[in-house]
Every structure is written in structure tokens, then in C-alpha cells.
TrEMBL record:
Keywords linked to the UniProt accession: Cell membrane, Membrane, Transmembrane, Transmembrane helix
Organism: Metallosphaera cuprina (strain Ar-4)
SSD domain boundaries: 493-652
Keyword Transmembrane: yes
Gene3D superfamilies reported in the protein's UniProt record: Multidrug efflux transporter AcrB transmembrane domain
Subcellular location: Cell membrane
Family listed: Belongs to the resistance-nodulation-cell division (RND) (TC 2.A.6) family. MmpL subfamily.
PANTHER family named among the record's database cross-references: MEMBRANE PROTEIN MJ1562-RELATED, MEMBRANE PROTEIN YDGH-RELATED
Protein name according to UniProt: RND superfamily drug efflux protein
Top-level lineage group: Archaea
Amino acid sequence: MDAKIWIVIWSVVLIGMIPGAMVYTHYLAYSNENNIQTLADKLLANSSLNRQTIYVIVNESPTPQLSKAVLEVEGNLSQYGLVSSPYSQYVSFLTQVTGNSTLARNYVLSHGLQGSPPFVRELVSSDNSSFLITLTLNYSNNFVYKNGSTPSEILTPIVQSEIRPLGPEAYVTGTGAIDYETQELTQKYAFVFPSLFLVLAIAIGVALRSIRAGLLGFVFVGLTLYMSYFSVYLTGLILGGVDYVVNYTLTAVILGITTDYFIFLIYRYKRDKKSINGSRKAILISGLTVGFSLATFSLVKGFLSWGIVLLLSVILSALLMITLLPAVISIFGGKLVKTSEYGTKESIFSKASRVSLVYLVLILLVAVPAIYFFFHVPTTYNFNTGLPSSLNSVKGLTILERDYGFPIIVLVNKTQASASLASFLQKYGNVVGPYVSTSNVSQFTVNNGYVYYLIYVKGSPYSTETLNVVKTLENHHLIVGGLTSDILALQRENVTVYSLLELLVVSAVGLVLGLSFRTWKYPLISLSGVLISVTEATAILYLIARFLLHIELIYLVPVIIFVILTSLGSDYSVFIISSVEEEREKDGDYVSRGMGRTGSIVTTLGIILAISLGTLAFIPIAFLQELGISFVVSIVIDTFVIRTFYYPLMIRILYNIRNKT
């Protein structure tokens, strides 16, 4: 088809996408598709325990001098929800005893918590060094506004302003407060994302030795991202919403494949005398491989929208690159880059393809323990890990975990509630509930026939110790709820979900590559190479995270890296395999010639992708830092070890080709 016709067609298509791309954010759903609702969650659905709560930690002793300020702050906050502190609880208690609220308030203003009963001191630390003010909102824990924010997150700056009379040692914390300050922190580093595009443009220009090529690459990256937003809109229309977390994966994938396809096409145009038909075929195979491998997300519970968005985005991007880009090249190619013939000098990649089998043995010796570690790597479900300790919400959270802990909720039938059960639960922490400080069962009743106990275990709800407490309680056939219980349920679910996802991605990549090249050997080489680079990168990332950054490895990072690099790794596989297959028709050592033709471009692509995605490591959010570092490490291993040495050695072994020096 004539180049100008392709330009016209794509102009019409891209203009038609504008309305959808402009409103794609309206279809982002901020409630996780994979939420797991336990029996405890169902029983607590209409309970006050299932309400968003903002915590104010005052890192001072609850002295009489603070009484007035605290009660005034509570009065100001009461318009937003149910407020409680040891001072207001004591006022309520004295009011019930004396029948005079004024007298009760005046006593607390003068004497503080002097003479208060034990239940009032539940909001005071055991060493009397801090106390709590809680603001419970009339919104369930799962309630989220359409823009993705929660009521507790929106109210955080208001609460921060209201508590100023309490002094600098008062901190607002809780899920909403941490989300609010994390978002504020991310916005400070918003320049990183635009800089990523700038880095790509510069890198493309340097790689192709053309400023114009760099600018054109910037344009095509923008176009493919624009189409990916339209894909989100289209998926949202079909499903009603798209999980917002897919944005991270979507951005990485689209940046990766667009850069790869752009440089590969321009490079082949530059080196192969304007003949890019073979390159278009390679890109089509690659696009199908990446697209259908990522589409397997949809076959896993909770990831339906991920698969559809990624499939649409990748296929649209591949179509754009094999039609519009060649059309632009055919018209402006001479002004973009100068064509050049191959030199007679043998490249270092040709020489590297003939190294001894000792290199392969060394690669496999390192890979075996890395693969084992990948499937046993310790991870955390705590996305707050690594947040700057300077954040007020983090300071408050540290004190909250140290002095109080987060509650584990135990639900039992009314007939099971007893002093002996309360005594058993007290082995694991400070307990609030029937037969502890009161025998009044009714005040702890939820959902008709059930009552609850709260066990406050000091420390993080994500810690191994807290998880083991929940497991022990479950082994005693108790219904357990709370954050730690939900984490444990999610861990159990993910063992199956992520294993299935990894299997489906590997199967899809292997199937498409196998059908495209009509052999099982190339898929085996490609997938085993990716497995080695991903597992070794995970091991290195774990060491960096624990011993240099002093944070834990977040559980989603190895999974995302595996899926993305298994998919994107097929790009390089297709480029190398296509080149080797083209040289196979000629006499001589076609493996060396094929590697020589693609070695420099694959290395260039790897360096560009590593630098670009590595910019995420500069954002002081542990999840993004770990993603950025893992991208850099895995891509460097993949580029300089797997593609340079492992690939040609495996091709020679499987095809029984002798080294020819």
C-alpha cells in the first residue's frame, strides 16, 4: 500500500481515538479486582470494626495540661466521624457515674486521667509515654471514590491542621494518611516520568546518530502510549472498569516494545539498503508473542482487565510500527539517517558467539541456585516498606506499632465466649473483649450470634511473628479477621494465582515462537535465557534491597519482572532468531554472521531500555525503586550475558553446529 495512504489511515484512526483517550482515567478502578473476602470480613461487613479510621498518635504522656487541647481537638473533629481519646472516654465514664457532664468535664480538665478505670487506659501506651486519638469514619474499609482516593486520605490534611494545638509530637497516621503523604511525595518526583521520555529520545538519537531519528522516536513513543490510554478506555467500556495498577506494567511494556521496534526498523533500514520487509515480519511475530503472552493475565482470577488492556495496546503498537513507521521512513528516510553497508571487519559479537562451552557451564552453575532462590525468595506484602522516615505518617506508624500494635480480630459464637477463651487469647497480646475488663457480652456483639475479641500484638501486622499468631489461632478453629488475616489469605491465594500466571505466560510465548519458526528449539533457548536473567536479577535485587536499601522485597516485584521480561525478552529473541535464520540460507558459520548482524542493535536496545526504566529507581517509593533496580539488573544480564554468550552457544548445541574460527 502506498505510504501516503497509510499516513492518512492512521491520521484518521488516531484522531478518532481522541475522545476515548481523554477520558480513560474515568474507567480506572481503584478497588482491587482480586480482593479476597474472608468469613470474618463478611461477618464484620456492617460492624464499626469495618470502618476507615484515622489515628492521631501523641508521643507524650497524657498529662492534665493536655486535657483542654485534646478535648477541643476532638470537638472540632467530631463533625467528620466518631472521635475517641482517653480523655473523652474518661469524661463519658464520669458523666455516667455522676449524671453531670459539666462536672465530669471540669474534673478531667483539672486532673487529667487521674483515677481512670482500666478500659480508659486502653488508648494509652503501657509505659505511659504516648496516647491515641481515633477518628472513625462512616465509610467501610473498602470504600473508594471514583478518582481513586478514600475518605480517610482526603481528610488527612484537615486532621493535620486541626491537631496543631497538640504540638510537634502529634502525628496523623493510618492507611489514608500514608496514602496521602505517599502521593504528595510521588508528585515531588513527577519530573522522573517526563524525563524518562527525554532519556529515550536522547538515547535513540545517540544510538542511531541522528537528532531527527531521536525526535521521531519520541513522537512514536507518545503515539503508542496514547493508543494504550485508548485501550484502557475501550476495556473500561467492555468491563465497566480497569484495575489502576496495570498502569505500571502497561507503561513499561509500551515503552519497551516501541523503543525496540523503532530502533530495530531504523537500524535495519540503515544497514540493509532500505529493505525492511524482514524486519516488519520479525516485529509482527514479536508483537503477537508479547501480546498473547500478556493476554494470559485475563485467564487468572482478578486480572481480567490487565490481559485485555495489554493485548490491545501491544497489538495496536505493533501495527503502528509495521505500517506507519515504514511509510514515514519511505518518505523521509534519507533525512533521518544515512544508509551504510556492512564493514568487512568482524564484530565482537561474532567472536563472542564462538566462545568455549566453559562459558555455558559457568552460566548454568550460577543459574541453578538463582532459580531455586527465585521460588523461595522472602517477600513482604507491606507496600509501606522503605518509605522515608521523615514522613509524619511513618513516624506515627512506627510509634503505633511499637506501643499498641494492630488488632487481630477473633470472632466466636456467643456461646463460645468465656473467661477461659479470653485467658487463652491473652497469651498472644493485649485483649479487649468479653470477660476481660467486663462481662458485658452485648457491647461486643456483631452480626447477631457472634461476638468479637481484639488482640493487640505489638509490631508490624506484616511481620512473620504476627502472621504466625494468626495461623495458630486458625489452627484452633477460630474465625480470624483484620489486616494480618487478610494478608495471610492473599498469600495463600497468590501461591496458585501467580504460579498459574507464570505458566500461562511461558506457554503463550513458547507456542507463538514455536509456531512462527516451526521448531521447539528456539522457544526453549528464549525462555530458558529469560528465566536465568530474571532469577539472577531477583537474587541481586534482594541483596541490594536488604543490605543496601534496608528494605524488604515487595511480593509483586518478582512477578511483574518475570511477566514483563518474559514477554519483552521475546523481542530480542525474535530479532536474533530472524537474523540467524536469514543467514542460515548461506554457506559458512551462519550463527556468527547472524549474531554479528544483530549483536550491536540488541545491545543498544538493552542499554536504552535499562537506562529508561531504571529512572524509576530515583523515586523514593520502595515499590518503584525495586522495579527500577530490577529492570536495570535483569536487562543488563540479559543483554551482556544471555544474548551475547548463552544464545549462540545453545543454538550451536541444539543444532549441532561446530565452531568455525
